[in-house]
Amino acid sequence: MEFFEDLLRLLDSKMTTPQPYGWFHLLWFAASILVGVVLCCTHKKGDDARVRRTVLITAITVTVMEIYKQINYSFSYENGIEFYYQWYIFPWQFCSTPLFVGLIAGFTKKGLVHRATNAYLATYALFAGLCVMCYPTTVFTRTIGINIQTMFCHGSMITVAIYLLGSGYVKANKKTFLQAATVFAIAVGIAVILNEIGYRTGLTNDHFFNMFYISPYCDPHLPVYSTVQQYVPFPYCLFIYIAGFSAAVAIILLAVKGIEVLAKKKVNV
């Protein structure tokens, strides 16, 4: 029991809260891009086993770090060690989905599910990672492990996406967009169901439980979308949410396609 208590306190070790665009943030941001580029440069065409292994190892590492986060947030140490689950950290947010999708992509054989999950990791997960890594105003705390966890998990979304797109394993085309959008729609659907369960069971009376931050039963939270949520009925809000995120992903794919075209022109010159 004493060992368990010491371990929990070690996992809750403190540091000065990192600042956005400080050395801690920028180091992780740069590393996430650099590792993705290195993976692309050392990738062998048609090396399915290596891609699968990379995605799976990343997903397993993110899973372990998510378990640590759940443990850390669930224990307090002011009056001894007490357990109290913080429902707002329930792992079904937009940025949590690469954990589950990555495991599916890593374990499934080649086929529609494998292609769709990898398409999601290369697009929607990339957008999620970029949103946080470019604007990390709410993710940093005084806990060392949580800061490492949030930077690794969000940074790895960028790393994996760069690898999948840069190596050509995932193509920047319409099929990729449709497959990824299907996975995203399923993920949003699950979030809607969880939010409804949270409301019907009374969970939201005492806890902040707002998966994907789209629950009509909670105060608006997301930038931009929160403004829409105040004036537009929920079903239409949900459509705007999906359409907005999908538009961002479409722009990303167009940008990647443009880079590919320019690269080919330079090679042919």
Account of the protein in words:
By secondary structure, this protein is mainly alpha-helical. Helix content is 69%, strand content 1%. The protein has 11 helices and 2 strands. It has helices at residues 2-11, 23-41, 48-74, 97-107, 112-122, 124-134, 144-166, 174-200, 203-206, 225-231, 234-268; strands at residues 75-76, 82-83. The chain has a two-stranded antiparallel sheet. Strand 1 (75-76) and strand 2 (82-83) form a beta hairpin. Helix 2 (23-41) packs parallel to helix 7 (144-166) and helix 4 packs antiparallel against helix 5. The relative contact order is 0.12. The mean pLDDT is 91.
Please give the oligomerization state of what you see: single chain
Q: Give the termini distance in whole angstroms.
A: 68 Å
What is the string of SSEs from the N terminus onward? HHHEEHHHHHHHH
Helix content: 55-70%
**Major sheet:** 2 strands, antiparallel
| Alpha-beta classification | mainly alpha
Let me know the average pLDDT.
91
Shape annotation:
globular
Secondary structure tally, helices? 11
